[in-house]
């Protein structure tokens, strides 16, 4: 649909989002390759036909960051949505969707940093880093901030448990 005024009649693209925690309780974020703005995001992507959200999460992780070395710690209770700004609706996803409806997963990274390779077959990112959990909404493009705030609120218990575990390991010298 080319008329941006009619974008509210378009469906949401079914997707997954991944909050990947390292052993220190930091979260994987990456800078998109297709933008000049200093915006970072967590991995996310579409769910293929016949694929469960969990299967999509691990496939997307492998496709976007070159590894699927992780275990699921939690899953969002609901599907979360964001709408694209009207000026992007006709440009993104061939104009077929108004935004994304995402099932989010909190995962523990079980690999090593050297296992991460954003130079994948179809690269989406030009840089990556581990970011503080509480800073995630401030890192992302403005139209995704409400979604990021919601998922940070929902995954706060997981992040808190990981922070306690990391502090305990640090205090006992087992990191």
Give your account of this protein's structure.
The protein is an alpha+beta fold. It has a single domain, classed as Nucleoside Triphosphate Pyrophosphohydrolase, CATH 3.90.79.10. Helix content is 28%, strand content 28%. The protein has helices at residues 53-65, 86-89, 136-139, 145-172, and strands at 12-21, 27-32, 40-41, 44-46, 70-75, 80-83, 99-109, 125-131. Strands 1, 4, 5, 6 and 7 form a 5-stranded mixed sheet that branches. Strand 2 and strand 3 (40-41) form a beta hairpin. It starts with 11 loop residues before the first strand and ends with a helix. The mean pLDDT is 93.
Keywords:
hydrolase, RNA pyrophosphohydrolase, RppH, 175 residues, Nucleoside Triphosphate Pyrophosphohydrolase, NUDIX_hydrolase_CS, bis(5'-adenosyl)-pentaphosphatase activity
Compact overview of the structure:
Residues 11-153 form the Nudix hydrolase domain. Helices cover 28% and strands 28% of the residues.
Poorly predicted regions are none
CATH topology: Nucleoside Triphosphate Pyrophosphohydrolase
Could you give the distance between the termini? Answer: 53 Å
Please write the string of helix (H) and strand (E) elements. Answer: EEEEHEEHEEHH
